[in-house]
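Weekly sync, protein design subgroup
Attendees: M.S., D.O., the rotation student, P.L. (late)

Item 1: inverse folding check
M.S. brought a backbone from last month's batch and wanted to see whether the design step gives back something sensible before we order anything. D.O. pointed out we never logged the input encoding, so this time it goes straight into the notes. Structure tokens as presented (245 positions):
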């Protein structure tokens, strides 16, 4: 696709689901992808499938040094960075009255700190070159209140507000950094595996099984945003099944 060939794109959470599908679609359209996740065997397999235009680093978005190493790998392998897709996330949902504090902290570490760590690592490059594109996976849960998933919803509201504020800062500072927040609805990924077994989880799984979309629909949305001319900023994309309210 025009506008994407030879772009160097970092993808966190690349070992499955949206990250994996996006890596494949971007590479098929001529991009070079730098893959990050904690599951090395899956990364190794995906990198092998894509070929010479992919490289990976087993890394944890909650670790600031890991993200700095990821940026260094991208520059060493491909000489530059054009896009960061901060996609890693987790969703161990529960009512707050259950007091699953460890789950809350995990979501903050990955869904919030993970995005901030990856942005902090790449921003010096983007600011110096006065160009770049940051794409973050929020959620439809980041656009409304979600009982039974309050902390997850809160983390996704955070990235929505943060990235929109950053976009305005970039305009004011003249750094030309584009931003895109993606709001997936019911997408068939491994995210539901992080929810503890419950009646609610069973209902959600049934809904996803019946109407959920494949990760490719989000991957195509990323492709669309990345392929736009430099003077076009696709700021927000909400993608969900037709039957999802």
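Designed sequence read out in the meeting:
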């Amino acid at each position: 696709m025009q506008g994407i060939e030879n772009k160097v794109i970092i993808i966190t959470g690349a070992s499955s689901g949206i990250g994996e599908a996006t890596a494949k679609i971007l590479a098929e359209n001529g991009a070079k992808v730098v893959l990050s996740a904690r599951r090395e065997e899956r990364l190794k397999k995906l990198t092998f499938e894509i070929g010479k235009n992919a490289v990976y680093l087993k890394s944890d978005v909650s670790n600031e040094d890991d993200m700095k190493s990821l940026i260094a790998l991208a520059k060493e392998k491909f000489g530059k960075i054009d896009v960061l897709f901060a996609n890693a996330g987790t969703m161990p949902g529960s009512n707050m009255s259950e007091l699953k504090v460890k789950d809350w902290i995990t979501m903050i570490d990955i869904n919030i700190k993970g995005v901030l760590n990856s942005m902090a690592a790449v921003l010096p490059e983007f600011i110096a070159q006065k160009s770049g594109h940051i794409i973050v996976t929020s959620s439809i849960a980041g656009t409304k209140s979600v009982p039974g998933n309050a902390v997850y919803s809160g983390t996704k509201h955070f990235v929505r507000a943060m990235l929109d504020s950053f976009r305005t800062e970039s305009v004011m500072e003249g750094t030309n950094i584009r931003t895109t927040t993606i709001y997936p609805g019911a997408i068939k990924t491994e995210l539901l595996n992080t929810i503890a077994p419950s009646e609610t989880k069973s209902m959600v799984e049934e809904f996803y099984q019946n109407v959920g979309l494949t990760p490719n629909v989000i991957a195509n949305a990323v492709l669309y945003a990345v392929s736009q001319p430099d003077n076009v900023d696709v700021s927000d994309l909400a993608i969900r099944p037709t039957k999802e309210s």
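Discussion: Residues 135 and 180 are 5 Å apart (CA to CA). Residues 101-129 form the longest helix (29 residues).
Action: P.L. to compare against the previous round before Friday.
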